[in-house]
Amino acid sequence: MAGLRLDCYPLFNDPPLIVPGASERDWMDGTPDRFAYRCTPLSIANASGWELINPVDLTASWNGGAGLEDIVVRADDGSVPAYASSHFGSGILTFQTGYLFRTDPDWVIWCRGSPNRMKPGIAPLDGIVETNWAPFTFTMNWRFLQPGSVRFAAGEPFCFLSLWPSVALENVTPRLRPLASDPDLEREYASWRDSRLAFNRKLAEQDPEAQAQKWQRFYLQGQSPTGRLRATEDHRIKRRLASPERDAGFGDLAPQGMSYVHGTGDHPPAQTDGAGLDETAVFRAVAADTAVDEATEMNETARLAVALMDGTRSLASIIDTLLDDFDVERERLAADMLQLAADLLARHAIARVG
C-alpha cells in the first residue's frame, strides 16, 4: 500500500530540521521508575507526527501589551532571528515553518505543539490547515500565559505536524447507548473492571506478587483479561515515523542568500570537522532521532548532543566521555560516529557544508 503524501518544499537555504516525533519526554523520564511510559497511548501520541526543530537558542519576552512591539525576540548572540517574531500582537509569538507543505486530496495538516510537552509561561495554538490545495504557507503560534520571558533552546521542537482526514469527522454521529445493549462488551468490561480493582487492592496491601508485577499489561498485550477480545494488526506499542527523504537530483533549497535564521543575506557557515560535517546539525538530529527503546549508546549520545549544541562540549570531549562509559576503542568509536553522521545526513537531508 502506497504511503500518504507529505511533500515539504523548503523556502530557505537553511530550513529547520523535520524529524519524526520522539516518544520520550523529560517529565516522563522523571516519574518514579519512569512509570509514565507504561501508558502506551501517551507515548504513541508523542510520536504521531513530525517535529520542526528550533535552530538557535532564543528568548521571547512579553510586557503584557496588545501591540506588535510588546513582544521582543532575541537570540543568545543578541541578533534578531528572522523566523520568530511578533506578527499578530496580543501576546502571540509566531514561528515561520520555513516550508510550503502539500498533502493528498483527502488529508490536511494539524499544526500544533508537541503532544505532552509543556512549556512554562506559554501555550501552543493548534491549527488545521488545508494543505491539500492551498499554495500558502502557515505559521506556528504560541500565546503567552502572562507577561514575562520564555526560552526556546536550539534542538527543541517548536512545531508538531500530523496528518488528519479533511472531512471524515463530519460524517461521525456520536451515539449514547446503554452498555447492556452489547452483552459481550459488557461482560468484557466487567471482567476488566473487577480485575483492575482486585489488582489495585493488592498493591495497596503491598502484596509481593502485585508489587513485582507493578502494573497490568492488558492494553500493552492487546487483549482483554479473558483473552476473548484481541487487538487488530493495527495495534501499536511503539511508533516510529519515517524521516524525510530528499528527492533524487534535489538541488539548492531556495534562492541563494535567503536564510531562515538570519533573513536576507548570507548566513554564517557552521563549524565543521575534518570530514566536512556540520557537528551541531548531526548531533541535533541524533537527539531528535532517539526513541525510548533504542540502544543505551544512542540515548547517551543524544544527551550529550545538548551540550554540544550549547557549545559547552566539543566533539573530542564527547568522544572521551563515551569512551569512559563504553568499552570501545577510540578509532572504532570515531568511525562509528562518522558513519552515524553520514546516515543522519542522508536521512534528515542535512546539507554538507564547505
Report on this model:
Pfam families: DUF6065 (PF19541), PqqD (PF05402). InterPro entries: DUF6065, PQQD, PqqD_sf. This protein folds into three domains: 6-171, Deoxyuridine triphosphatase (dUTPase) (Deoxyuridine 5'-Triphosphate Nucleotidohydrolase, Chain A, Distorted Sandwich); 179-215; 269-348, no CATH class. The chain is built from nine helices and 16 strands. The chain has helices at 26-29, 40-46, 183-204, 208-213, 218-221, 279-288, 296-310, 315-325, 330-348; strands at 6-10, 18-20, 50-53, 58-62, 71-75, 84-89, 92-96, 99-103, 107-112, 122-124, 127-129, 139-144, 148-152, 157-165, 258-259, 263-264. Strands 2-3-14-9-11 form a five-stranded antiparallel beta sheet, with no helix packed on it. Strand 6 and strand 7 form a beta hairpin.
Relevant terms:
single chain; 354 residues; alpha+beta; 3 domains; 4-stranded antiparallel sheet; globular; disordered C terminus; PqqD_sf; DUF6065
Mean pLDDT: 80
Query: Which series of helices and strands comes N to C?
Result: EEHHEEEEEEEEEEEEHHHEEHHHH
Strand residues, percent: 15-25%
The low-confidence runs, each spanning 5 or more residues with pLDDT under 50, are 265-300, 305-311, 341-354
- Cα distance, first to last residue? 40 Å
Biggest β-sheet: strands ordered side by side in the sheet: 2-3-14-9-11
Helix content: 25-40%
Over all CA atoms, what is the radius of gyration? 23 Å
Oligomer: single chain
CATH level 4 superfamily of the largest domain: Deoxyuridine triphosphatase (dUTPase)
**How many structural units, i.e. domains?**
3
Number of helices: 9
Derived from helix and strand composition plus strand pairing, the structural class reads: alpha+beta
Number of strands: 16
Give the C-level CATH assignment of the largest domain: Mainly Beta
User: Which descriptor suits the 3D outline?
Assistant: globular
> What is CATH's topology name of the largest domain?
Deoxyuridine 5'-Triphosphate Nucleotidohydrolase, Chain A
The CATH level-2 architecture of the largest domain is identified as: Distorted Sandwich
- Largest β sheet strand count, sense and barrel closure: 5 strands, antiparallel
InterPro entries: DUF6065 (IPR045709), PQQD (IPR008792), PqqD_sf (IPR041881)
